Amino acid sequence: MSDATFMGVSREKIGWAPTIDYSKCNFCMECDDFCPHKVFERQDGEVKLVVANAKNCVVFCRACSKTCGPDAITFPSKPETIAAIKKIREEEGEAQ
Amino acid sequence: MKCAVLVCSGLDKPLGSLAREVALCAAGQAECEIVCPVLLSNSPGRYEAVLKDLPLAVVDGCGTRCATKLATQLELKITRRMLLPEAVKELGETFEDSLRPGPKAQELALKLALQLVADDEEQEPAPELEAVLFPEPVDLLKVTHGKFVFPIPAEGYFFNENDCWVQVVGSRARIGISDYMQQSLTDITFFEAPDVGRAIAQFDDAGAVESAKAVFDVISPVSGKIVAVNPVLDDTPELINEQPYTGGWLVELELADFDADRELLLTAEEYAVKVKQKAAEASA
Question: pLDDT tens digits, residue range B207-244?
């Protein structure tokens, strides 16, 4: 398991990553060209691009979605993500 | 605004075709001069007079930002910039997936062109905005990694893990990017500033910093209302590289609830640990 953390919480526990809407995506690969963290991965076959490394995604960064012409990339809500991180911090703080 | 329009030439992509339409509309609406990136790249002299006389507006068709990169390489000052996917989204529109712009795409191109050449709105003087003195850092922590040194102000600044800092004086704050991030981005060419007057939550976007290498979303360490953006960055974005913690500040805010925000921020010592980790991971 990766020991990467974000704000003191294991990155594995934070559900921040892009979601591709395949009804909109035209596989132009702009997001993959843009992202330096290798979050996306190209594939052979009908679905040519997937979110392969969600945990590489920088929490709160949505920059790849700005490169997306068809607006096919979405992210979780920031307030909900912050609330979830705070909750885990509290629980882990109490547990110690 | 009459300007020179350096436009994406992505002829094999729908957004490239839309970019061309935008340039044509801008030329028709405001007598703008169209600058072909291919010719500019091969024979910069051909556009010397135009670029000397007119402010430069750049239209990028996609995130590869060829037009912006070319302008940067030639050390041209960019006055306006439009990234089409973003601009189309902001208008609440969609674009046709076609290389031949139809009537709908032409209508969209006209809207975008009018936005591109719109005259600057009269900036209302910021009312009752008392000047606040943000002191320069006295001591710096220095994180080293190989030949690289990443200074961090030892006191008076807090950080988030997105490599942004905040300096608080009373109810006001300035935010910016850390020395580590400016070194990662390399030569910064543009700060896309957020709107003054907008209220943002902690970790919301507060603009974007662009270099030839990457685009970096500025993630605000604090919540509040944006009261100013650094006015000198339009002309000298390189200040973000040269003085990331002082002259290269990005945005000033009237704080909403710093006590609550503070809980999720790092001190200089804590951020130094993160920088060391990030630098090690980046070079791994």
Answer: 999 987 788 999 999 999 999 999 999 889 999 999 99
Q: Which of B207, B160, B174, B200 is nearest to A79 (CA)?
A: B200
- Here the ipTM equals 0.88
In the prediction, which pLDDT does A3 show?
Answer: 67
Residues A90, A56: contact at Cβ < 8 Å?
no
Residue listed under structure tokens 């390489």: B73
Distance between CA atoms of B26 and B8, rounded to whole angstroms?
Answer: 14
Residue B181 CA from chain centroid, whole number = 14
Which runs of consecutive H residues, i.e. helices, occur in chain B? 14-30, 37-42, 48-53, 66-73, 84-90, 103-117, 179-185, 239-242, 258-262, 268-283
Residue B113 has pLDDT above 60, yes or no: yes
pLDDT for position B127? 61
Give the pLDDT confidence of A78-96 residue by residue, as tens digits: 999 999 999 999 998 876 6
SS3 state of residue B101: coil
What's the pTM value of the predicted model, to 2 decimals?
A: 0.80
A78–B203 CB contact, under 8 Å: yes
Q: Return the pLDDT at B225.
A: 96
Q: Tell me B45's DSSP state.
A: G
Neighbours of B243 (CB within 10 A): 15
Partner-chain residue, chosen from B64, B89, B217, that has the shortest CB–CB distance to A63: B217
**Residue B270 in contact with partner chain A when CB distance is under 8 A:** no
Q: Is B161 exposed, middle or buried (0-12, 13-18, 19+ CB in 10 A)?
A: buried
CB atoms B217 and A7 under 8 Å? no
Q: Is A31 exposed, middle or buried (0-12, 13-18, 19+ CB in 10 A)?
A: buried
Closest to B222 in 3D by CA, of B145, B281, B164, B154 = B164
First to last CA, chain A: 21
* Residues in chain A within 8 Å Cβ distance of B194: none
In order, the DSSP letters of B125-142 are PPTT------PPPS-EEE
Angle between helices B14-30 and B103-117 (to 10 degrees): 60
A20-24, B122-126, B265-269, range with the lowest pLDDT: B122-126
The pLDDT of residue B163 is 97
